[in-house]
Amino acid sequence: MGGRISLGLHWKVIGMNWLGSNRQTIVGSGERFFTTTDYIQERDMVVLTVSYKSIG
Questions:
Q1: Which residues of the chain have pLDDT under 50?
Q2: How many CA atoms, within 13 angstroms, populate the side-chain half-sphere of residue 49?
Q3: CA distance 23 to 53
Q4: What is the pTM of this model?
Q5: Concatenated DSSP letters for 13-53?
Q6: Are the beta carbons of 22 and 39 closer than 8 angstroms?
């Protein structure tokens, strides 16, 4: 009885900020002031996939 093992490694959202989806701008104002704040969030995610297929 034998089998086959497959491994996969995926690195997602590598933090190069090519897409604007990780940006958020908050703007506030009042009678005598105006403020704006930019939040930038970049996450790296590594996904490891292991599969086994039996033969026989």
A1: none
A2: 6
A3: 42
A4: 0.43
A5: --S---SGGGEEEEEEE-SS-EEEEEEE----EEEEEEEEE
A6: no
